[in-house]
């Protein structure tokens, strides 16, 4: 304590008299506000102000490519148009399909891999590193090389499928077929991000104390019983956290889809973010796209909040 | 408002930037512009952007009032928006002052690349690069006696550059899946790209010859019965059947680059692509001597999809005088002749009407023929919305098998009507 007093005395001694005079009389609360003010101002400037500005733009007919045009207030017209537009709903459906399947596959495979790696077999460190490699790559690189892998005439993927099924390699098009293109993207995203889910699950598995399993052994609980009664419940908060992160990320997915299919064939893989980009930066309907962005934001924010509440419930059990 | 060209001595230290797409003619322009620097002392920098990103990049630059480009060779469809939003400098006064006459350029190119509102004497660009969608074919395969005989026996006409779209499809069908010189080959490489403008530029090359029109009365935006006419439906059905029957596997999102790759690697007998690539192809070491060229075949009428661009001075340029000096230099007939000889497509009558023009290159006569029947997409300020709507409707129908041709074109009218209503034109 005397050490702390000594430091405080030295700091007080080094404070210029003019500043000390200004600070004297300020409450602790005021000083705390002074310290956090720069961060708060920064947050307001880069997060809150753009959000409010976007809400304002969403209520106008503003177009970024018409700087000289008169800006008219259009009320909730854009919101009504978006919510009654079948193309927007089709994009939301594509997004939901992508999010649900990628999360399901990544969770199942990621947890299975984590469970295997947790066995601590010989060389498990090496295999952990190998499995983690895809998520260390840039999405642009991943998108481009999977595009080559999926090429019907020279792509390795088609040749592997052909080897196992006997089908002609160029007889199917992963990226050009309406049926296969959504799955082609799901495969790539699963390949790239399963290691991330695995890593979180591995942390969860390693956080379970050994003595719980030892107690279960003494009670003659089977491996199956231990898995369902100890491993899964104790790992559940971690799994849910991984699902939350991946869900939010995939709801906003843009780069990979843009590189692989650009939303095609037709509009088959046009997820919400691709539609948003087209409206905002190709058609330049800034007001309309702002409204769409707000709808997407509210959707993700709402779903994430419900989910976090569920996560907290699981954690408090 | 507009100053005359600076004297070389006054402009020694100035450098201006010219922005364009990254493709073969851009390299020719770099070569040509060396003469400008030598003559005026004004240095030249170039900003070339690959075609798929060209519109996004440059329109962002203009919308943000960027100073990157002093001169811009922008797409013909941008002219309405760029004129109305003040991105381009109006050139009428400058042309009058410098004696540059629009009558010296091919009328179709002046109309398409320079004027806004369309057809009025309000000039925002100098025609710089004439272009249209044409066809490349493997002359050596077409000349093989055994193939010629087999084709004649099967279809009853000669295996030669087609005169109609129907003939084109028959030739493509004939080559599809055939083994030529020990390699499996395919009929035709056509445009199917979804992201920018590819499938629209490709499909209109069939739609226009079949009789598609944007409006019943030009300028009235009365699209019902024109965009979805029986002829237009036939044209779109034709393009889909050409895509289904005769393209290489995986050809679902392909534009100029993919077409060139397929043709140069000997995969396809014919390739749809812009005339701009013909000089480069004719010089190609591997396939140049084996390649022939033909104009887009007609059906009900002779028509080609317009490409090409005019050169404009960007309003936000701090080097306006130097940029105008470049335009003045570029409009000179001698410079235009050199432009053509280097691989650019001059629109100047001094070049096009030269008695030796048609035989000057293996594609020169076809270029003249194509430019006589070109049709262009909407050049409205809302062109980007109009284009994106067409890209979606066409790709949905042609590649993704969604609905019928009539439904696609009806849907297109609905989209375009909504856009024109937002624009206050309907």
Number of helices of chain A: 14
Q: Largest sheet of chain A at a glance?
A: none
What's the gyration radius of chain A in Å? 27 Å
Helix content of chain B: 40-55%
Distance between the amino and carboxyl termini of chain A: 40 Å
Report the average pLDDT across residues of chain B.
94
Low-confidence stretches of chain A: none
Please, could you describe this protein's structure?
The complex is a heterodimer of chains A (about 325) and B (about 425). Helix content of chain A is about 75%, strand content about 0%. Chain A has about 325 residues and is mainly alpha-helical. The relative contact order of chain A is 0.12. The longest helix of chain B is centred in the C-terminal third of the chain and has 18 residues, at about 405-420. Chain B is globular. In chain B, the strands form 4 sheets. Chain B has a 5-stranded mixed β-sheet with strand order 2-1-3-12-4, with helices on both faces. In chain B, strands 8-9-5-10 form a 4-stranded mixed β-sheet. In chain B, about 45% of the residues lie in helices and about 15% in strands. Chain B is α/β, with parallel strands linked by helices and about 425 residues long. Chains A and B meet through helix 13 of A and helix 2 and helix 17 of B.
Q: How would the blueprint of this fold be written?
A:
The complex is a heterodimer of chains A (317) and B (426).
Chain A: H1 2-14, H2 17-23, H3 28-58, H4 77-83, H5 86-117, H6 124-136, H7 139-149, H8 156-165, H9 181-206, H10 210-218, H11 223-251, H12 255-260, H13 272-282, H14 286-316
Chain B: E1 15-21, H1 24-40, E2 43-49, H2 51-63, E3 71-75, H3 79-84, H4 92-98, H5 107-113, E4 126-129, E5 133-138, H6 139-142, H7 145-155, H8 165-175, E6 179-180, E7 183-184, E8 186-189, H9 198-210, H10 230-246, H11 256-264, E9 268-274, H12 278-283, E10 291-295, E11 304-305, E12 309-313, H13 320-330, H14 333-342, H15 349-352, H16 364-371, E13 374-375, H17 383-398, H18 405-422
Helix pairs in contact in B: 1-14, 8-10, 9-10, 9-17, 17-18
